[in-house]
Amino acid sequence: MTSTLLSFEKSTPGKRGWFLPKSEVPSFNPAQSLSPDLLRKSPLGFPELAEIDIVRHYTNLSSLNHGVDNGFYPLGSCTMKYNPKINEDLASLPEVKVSHPLWPEESCQGHLALLFELEQALSEITGMDYFTLQPAAGAHGELTAMLIIQSYLKERGEKQRTKVLVPVSAHGTNPASAAMAGFETIGVNCDTEGLVDLDHLKSLLNSEIAALMLTNPNTLGLFEKNIKSIADLVHQNGSLLYYDGANLNAILGLTRPGDMGFDLVHLNLHKTFSTPHGGGGPGAGPVGVKSFLSDFLPVPVLESKSGIYSWNYDRPLTIGKMLGFYGNYSVLIKALAYIYALGTEGLAQASQDAILNANYLRAELSNFFHIPYNRNCMHEFILSAVNLKAHGIRALDVAKRLIDFGYHPPTIYFPLIVEEAMMIEPTETESKETLDRFLKTLIQISEEAKSDPELLTSAPHRMSVSRVDETLAARTPRLTWTPS
User: Rounded distance, CA 275 to CA 271, Å?
Assistant: First the structure.
């Protein structure tokens, strides 16, 4: 590497000279570089604290956080499973950490090879033909897919297709992403089984429909058994079928969106393929497409010719760039490591175990909570606290009480079509002992709801912050900190 930018000196990371020779690092003196009216006239006045006090303060704060490393996280809708630490180690290797998106292609062939292999693996797993790893999150992937659909229809001269169908049980990001791309969204009803209402779908299909956005299994944890009929109806209408990959953890190695009839898909690598999910990031939302949509993928597109990897920007029909560079590299590396470690059989076993765990909890809890769709589910299922309303208890109260037992509450009040909904997703990484403790806790809470409802309505009792007035917090939030 001869570029000045890439001439690493043997110096400590974080010190001057790490990327540039010391002689070329510009000096910066605030007092000389800034206008006098921008400079402080007196010290800021930070308190003087001992190191031990600071360490204890932040250590105590960290102990208040809940994560999969210290407790069960049956969130539902967002797969919060344990992720192997070896994948974190691999993403922390010096060869990974020092990589830079401005490196010349010839200087990072190994990095590009890993990205290319991940694209190939995801194509095989999903039944798609091409992938882009560029989108930085799930909703970002949704938006990317919607823009691809929009460009495809424009190229075909079908600008009248300005509407997108979204099931009423869908993730909220689906209609939001479609709207951001300029589409009007229309809800598709669910039938009595919790699946897409085929008759309602048929009544909505016309020349204005661009696509149907669908999650399978859906957000009720149910597999759309009519998926081939749905795909045929959508395609016969000249529309596209988009797959929200948020629930891919239920079908890995068992079936593929491409085989179901989907035309394009986004995935959440930070849920399904080994990156701790939550806290605002990092994420990765790759998008896969069938070959007829490949010309519209974001640039640059990674190509391999005679074993040499390169970026191709010469794509006249591309939707353009969706990110400054090319995705969250460390997240992508973790995903590839996860796929290699498990292999085809391991990925299928992960989904099978997730399905088994979910059905075990569903069956055991059916005598204590209302289950609106009480039949075999996939990786998650819906409980309802509607049977506890007679005692003045809501799903929120059950969720708050769970905190007292060391569990992160599940997603509540979603999907919106289920009253007092609680979405449970145990994932494949939890042991039967953990599931049994969780079962015992939920059963105890259901009994407390009847014998001592105030115990639930005043929960949590063991946290540094008790229950807040959520209505007041939403209407008059305190957005700045003031000393007490």
Answer: 7
Nearest in space to 418 (alpha carbons), one of 441, 385, 377? 385
- d(CA 321, CA 318) in angstroms, rounded, equals 8
DSSP code per residue over 369-393: SB-TT-S--SS-EEEE-GGGGGGT-
User: What pTM, to 2 d.p., does this model score?
Assistant: 0.87
CA distance 211 to 166: 9
pLDDT digits (tens, 9 = 90+) for 328-386: 999 999 999 999 999 999 999 999 999 999 999 999 999 999 999 999 999 999 999 99
- Are 133 and 286 in contact by the 8 Å Cβ rule? The answer is yes
Among 424, 423, 419, 422, smallest CA distance to 389 is for 419
**What class does CATH assign to 343-462?**
alpha beta
CATH of domain 89-341: 3.40.640.10
**Delimiting residues of CATH 3.40.640.10 domain(s) in the chain:** 89-341
- Report the alpha-carbon distance of residue 309 to residue 75 in Å, rounded: 40
